[in-house]
Amino acid sequence: MTELTALFSEDKLRTLLQPGSFGLPLHFFKTIDSTNDYAKKIAARGEPEGTLVISEEQTAGRGRMGRSWISPPGTGLWLSLILRPTFIPSQAPLLTSLAAVAVAGAIRRVTGLSAGIKWPNDIIINDRKAAGILIELSAGERFVKYLIVGIGINVNTEDFPEEIRERATSLHICSGRKISRMEILISVLRELERLYSATIHNGDFNSILERYRSWSVTIGRQITATRSGQEFSALALDITPKGGLLIKDDAGMIEELISGEIQNLIFSSKK
Ligand code: BTN
Known about the structure:
With 271 residues, the chain is α+β, with helices and mostly antiparallel strands.
């Protein structure tokens, strides 16, 4: 950790961001309800691609599937980035894969931890969730107006509320040392920008998907998925070119899940 990245403050962050790169304009809050909600509001008013909304604390942080995301001050990274991709809305799931690879890659680079990806975009270390991604989209039929990439990373969290203690972890718990939030943040922004600019113009997500597969903690595992409200068990076979999950159910039927939620066996202890 360098002197420059050790402390986390708006002033420090501004010295590390470069005009024209992801992270500026910057909206930095001490506290906010949800960075995704704020990012949606300002994106609708026309804030440009690359705008970052970040807060020390969220009072109503949101996770996927209508869950809440616990976001206390001082320990984690709670941020939302505005993107304005030119591709068609049906390609949006691939942005989910891209964001997961960027976050896992940044964590790996800064901490040396083997961060894995649970489909579609949970970041898993030592079988527990260290970070989550919530992508929200405003789109017409043929184009995306804006897309919000919401990222929550448990960086220096030491303990979690009872209801998630069994399933959650932090970079600090996994590495045994304090991790610079600034260093993780800058690395996430750079990685997102690098992958996004490498793919967005030619629409070729192959190398991202290859990386995604190699870090997947889902492929090859028996999982529990939900179809029309009914749970069933299946084997996770592969990640498809659309960023979906290819599964084979116990009757041998193969299908592609495009979104939704699965549970790897590693999480089944909560049931
Ligand atoms: C999940 O795994 O369910 C997704 C969690 C996403 C949490 C982040 S924290 C910053 C941004 N603002 C929110 O309200 N949610 C996302």
